[in-house]
Amino acid sequence: MKFDDFIESFCSQSPKLPLMHSISGYNFMTIIEESKLKPRWCDHFKRDLIYFFYGRPSYTINSSHYSESQEYGLPVCLVLMPDSLKKFHRVFPFDTGAFKKGYFKAFFGHEMSILKFLLKSTTDCPGKLVGGFYNSNFKYFIEEPNSNKPGKIVDFEIRAYHDLITSRASSKYDDRRSAAEIQSDAVITLTEENVIAVVLPYLLMDVPKIRSRVITDWKAEIIPYQSYNVPIIGYTASIRDKVKDFLEKNNFF
Predict the structure, then answer these.
(1) Given 3-state DSSP classes, what are the helix, strand and coil percentages for the chain, each rounded to the nearest 5?
(2) So where are the chain's domains?
(3) Are 75 and 224 in contact (CB under 8 A)?
C-alpha cells in the first residue's frame, strides 16, 4: 500500500491542531513591521516557500549563526489557527530538510524517494497522520506513537516510517522526524483571524511595537519564556512546554 493511501484510510484526529512557524527574533521584527509571512527561497525544492509544523514548535533555529549573547537570534514561535491556510502546497510526515541531508538514511536507505512520503495536500491530512500513528493529539505532541508496526511486510515506506518515529536511538535529528511538515507558497497576511499566540523571550515582551501588533492588532496571546546566556538550541524544550500548556488550556488535547 502506498504511504499516502495508508494515511487516507484513517479519520482525521479532532480537533485540528494549530500551525507553528518558528523564526529568529531578527526575522520576527520584519513580520511585526509587515504583518505578513512571505515565502522564502528553498534550496531543496527550488522555489519560494513558507514552512510550518503541525501542532508542534519543532523547527530549531540554527545556533551556529548566533552567539549566546545575541538577542536577535532568540527563537520566536507563531501559533496560527488550524485553518489559517486556504490550501497547502505540500504535506510531508517529517522534516524534509533532515531527509534531504540524509539524517534518516538508517531507516529509509538510499532507495526510498522523498516523494514516496508526499501526502495529500488537504487541510485534514495532518490530522489523519495523527490518527493513523498516534490515535490522539496529546500522544502526537509528546511523540508517543502506537507500538504495533502497521501495514504488511511489503509496505516498506509505512513500516520504515514507523521505525523512524518509534526509534529512541541517539541521533543528530530531533522531534522533526515525526512532526508533520506543511508547505505554503502563498503570502499570508497575519490578522486576529489567524494568529492565536506568539511565544517569545521576556526581553521582547514589552517592546511597544511588538505589543501593539500582537495584542492590539492580532488580539493574540503573548507567551513569554526566560532567556539565559546559553546556546540557542537550549530553548527548544522551554518553548515546547509553553506551547503544550497553551494547547491544553485551549482544549486541543
Answers:
(1) 40, 20, 45
(2) 17-122+175-249
(3) no
